[in-house]
Backbone:
């Protein structure tokens, strides 16, 4: 008899444990305003990076950079693949973007419209290598992502025969391999 009671209590405690997590998830998702934290970047930095990559590659007939997960991939790379020096340079580039925005428009980058964001990023071309770093990382990650390769490039997982010299007009756009 005690064994049955112990099993019932164990099942009840287990169910409460699972439902408590589920209820907490639902309640926290209703509060709204919180930005997701990154693995390396803070929520604000991840949001800023998302806006930067979307300024380079906005949504058109192809997915935007954030839809392809460029900002989250870069966050993962910062967390696990970059050296300390590379991390410092990347973080400094985000700082420079925010500082340029404040200098040029007296507003944070997040509060600028798309034309102002573009102007801020273009103004980085005169400051060390920050423009090239951000743009290069964005383009590389975008075009090597599944969405970028399939939706922005011509994607053929099993290509046909090799044709070394083919006029670009016949292909239509660049190929992903």
Residues:
């Amino acid at each position: 008899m005690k064994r049955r009671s112990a099993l019932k209590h164990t099942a009840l405690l287990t169910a409460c444990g699972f439902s408590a997590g589920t209820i907490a998830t639902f309640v926290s998702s209703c509060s709204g305003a919180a930005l997701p934290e990154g693995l390396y970047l803070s929520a604000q930095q991840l949001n800023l990076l998302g806006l930067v990559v979307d300024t380079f590659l906005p949504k058109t007939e192809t997915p935007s950079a954030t839809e392809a997960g460029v900002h989250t991939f870069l966050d993962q790379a910062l967390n696990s693949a970059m050296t300390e020096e590379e991390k410092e340079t990347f973080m400094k580039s985000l700082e420079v973007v925010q500082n340029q925005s404040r200098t040029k428009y007296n507003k944070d980058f997040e509060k600028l419209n798309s034309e102002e964001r573009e102007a801020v990023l273009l103004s980085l071309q005169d400051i060390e290598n920050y423009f090239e770093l951000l743009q290069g990382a964005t383009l590389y990650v975008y075009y090597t992502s599944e969405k970028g390769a399939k939706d922005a490039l011509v994607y053929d997982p099993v290509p046909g025969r090799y044709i070394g010299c083919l006029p670009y007009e016949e292909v239509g756009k660049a190929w992903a391999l």
Notes: The radius of gyration is 23 Å. Helices lie at 2-30, 43-56, 70-80, 84-105, 114-123, 130-144, 146-152, 168-171. Residues 1-34 form one domain. The chain has eight helices and two strands.
